[in-house]
Design a protein that fits this description.
Number of helices: 3
Strand order of the largest sheet: 1-2-3-4-5
Number of strands: 5
Distance between the termini: 28 Å
Shape: elongated
Radius of gyration: 21 Å
Order of helices and strands: HHEEEEEH
Largest sheet: 5 strands, antiparallel
Strand content: 15-25%
């Protein structure tokens, strides 16, 4: 099966997509936080069951908690798949870090955006990561064809 060709975004395309996926990213971050809380509750409950042999445990509450945890897990997976299907890459769900494959002056790079930033202002080479972020040169900001 031939390997799917990567999509490269112009800055304008990436910015439009960023605006579309930002609300999804915010929802998935909140769902992940709630998921972690429920996971912790279930771990605590499992320890309590082991210590008490299952006595004094509301199995109905435990079942509701597990059901909600499973629902959140499915919602998180679906949201991440939706974001990835656009060609955008979720790099860090803790801080809401997204990368958009692009080309600047013929070099394959990632346009890099973090939740809370008002727009995409940085890029980095594909082998650098977040620590290698550099400001997008204003001369490159207006390119309309990412393949130069």
């Amino acid at each position: 099966m031939p390997q799917e060709e990567s999509k490269f975004f112009s800055l304008q395309e990436a910015e439009r997509l960023r605006a579309q996926v930002e609300p999804i990213l915010i929802d998935v971050i909140e769902s992940r936080r709630k998921f972690a809380e429920l996971d912790e509750q279930l771990d605590t409950l499992a320890e309590r069951i082991q210590r008490s042999g299952g006595l004094l445990v509301s199995y109905e509450n435990a079942a509701r908690t597990r059901l909600e945890r499973n629902r959140l897990e499915a919602a998180i997976r679906a949201a991440l798949e939706e974001i990835h299907s656009t060609g955008c890459i979720v790099k860090d769900l803790e801080v809401g870090l997204l990368d958009f494959p692009s080309r600047i002056q013929g070099e394959e790079v990632y346009l890099c955006w973090r939740l809370g930033e008002d727009r995409i202002r940085f890029y980095h080479r594909q082998d650098e990561g977040f620590a290698g972020r550099k400001p997008i040169d204003p001369r490159d900001a207006g390119y309309s064809n990412p393949i130069q």
